[in-house]
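Protein: GNAT family N-acetyltransferase
Species: Streptomyces hazeniae
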Amino acid sequence: MDLHSALRRYDAVVRRDAPAEGPGARLERDHGAGAVLRHVVPDGRGWHGVCWSDLDEDTADAAIAAQLRAFAAYGHPFEWKVYAHDRPADLAGRLRRAGFTPGPDEAVMVAEVTSVPTDAALPEGVRLHTVTDPADLHLLDEVHDAVFGPDGTSLRSWLGPVLETAPETVHLVVALAGDRPVSAARSSLPPEPAGTGFAGLWGGGTLPEWRGRGLYRALVAARARHAAERGFRYLHVDASDASRPVLERLGFHRLTTTRPYVFDPSSPGHRRNEAPA
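Structure follows.
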């Protein structure tokens, strides 16, 4: 894979020309100071934040202030995804000074679908279940809360409407040991014509007592197989330190790193902050 070319393509089609994902979601382009693309979910059910920006030392602070004002109208926490190659070089520091809280670094991993194994052995007594009925979304919530901790969010609350209105844009898989969900993951499949070949892998998690038994690999394989059937060329993942080595063994390459910066208007510290002029 030509990684430089893949990164340019990723920046263009996954970030700059990102499709709106989920019922009620929309994109807002702000060209007032530099250029910023916001993904907005007015009811808060879904990802809410800045997915792309083209800024420099002269425009960054004004652009940050403009996003604080824009997102304030919705009253929900929002995230600014900062990538290692984003400009200006001190964008992360400027966001911190504006009241954003950094999350963990993640590696942006990309693979061509045809290079990823689409078969994987499952432990005895475990089967994969593709979730297509909103009534089964509690299975994903159970794994999410057990692996990542309950955070007040519900996958069911925003994936339910997606399954009802645009089921072709997601692929949801749960590993079941008997009737118990022990691992789960999802993929996003941008609709044409906005989608141009990148399927995103998200939310992969396995209960601690089931780790090291090939379940994550099996979920990647299942989603790769589905993406290939749908005609996607690439898979992309924001990978933690735990999942990155597994993905590398499956044919993924690291393009860059990304880190979320979150602004929560409801926290006491943020309520005291004024947006910079």
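Remarks: The chain has two domains: 3-105+258-272, 111-256.
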